[in-house]
Amino acid sequence: MKIQSSGAVSLNVEETFARLCNPALHIARLNRDPATVSVQLQPENDGFSLNIVQKRRTMTGGLDPQATDPAHQRFRIDPTRRSLAWTWAQQGMVKVTLAGAFSVDSSGGRTTVRSEADVTVPVPVVGKVLEKIVASILNKSNETLPQDLERFTAT
């Protein structure tokens, strides 16, 4: 299932891209999610990775307080294209795979952040239902990205 979103920010392109590529922004956004138990940063040559432990989501999108699943999110920075490509893999009762990218551009004095992603849950019969649940969670997260970028200050 493919999803796309975009939002304007009041920051210039360079500042927006710098904030978008800062691992602390993504860690803060993950820690705001009630499913997140822990996040560990791993620097990479062309970006960074996050090793994440989250409470298991139920078939209805709720959280199982007794079970956790590991996830790995990888970010690759492309400063030439002002793009931050990412992948997410979570292995639990159901394997969830996401891949996407954030990009930043400017037109007419406005800076726009675009997001695109592909959600895959390869499970017969219920996979499409689970993809819709994951896509809904991802869409909610993408809705707050422009505001998060404007409020974010590196520590």
What does this structure look like?
- With 155 residues, the chain is an alpha+beta fold.
- The chain has one domain (2-151): 2-Layer Sandwich (Alpha-D-Glucose-1,6-Bisphosphate, Chain A, domain 4), CATH 3.30.530.
- The protein has 3 helices and 7 strands; from the N terminus they run βααββββββα.
- The chain has helices at 13-20, 23-32, 127-151; strands at residues 2-9, 36-44, 47-57, 63-78, 83-90, 96-107, 110-120.
- Strands 1-7-6-5-4-3-2 form a 7-stranded antiparallel sheet, covered by helices on one side.
- Strand 3 and strand 4 form a beta hairpin.
- The longest helix has 25 residues, at 127-151.
- The protein is globular and about 45 Å long.
- The chain starts with a strand and ends with a helix.
- 21% of the residues are buried.
- The mean pLDDT is 91.
Structural class: alpha+beta
The name of the CATH superfamily reads START domain
The biggest beta sheet, please?
7 strands, antiparallel
In the CATH hierarchy, what is the architecture at level 2? 2-Layer Sandwich
List unreliable stretches of 5+ residues: none
Question: Regarding CATH, which class?
Answer: Alpha Beta
Spatial strand sequence of the major β-sheet = 1-7-6-5-4-3-2
Helix content: 25-40%
Could you tell me the number of beta strands? 7
At CATH level 3, the topology is Alpha-D-Glucose-1,6-Bisphosphate, Chain A, domain 4
> What is the typical, i.e. mean, pLDDT?
91
The H/E string reads: EHHEEEEEEH
Give the overall form: globular
Distance between the termini: 36 Å
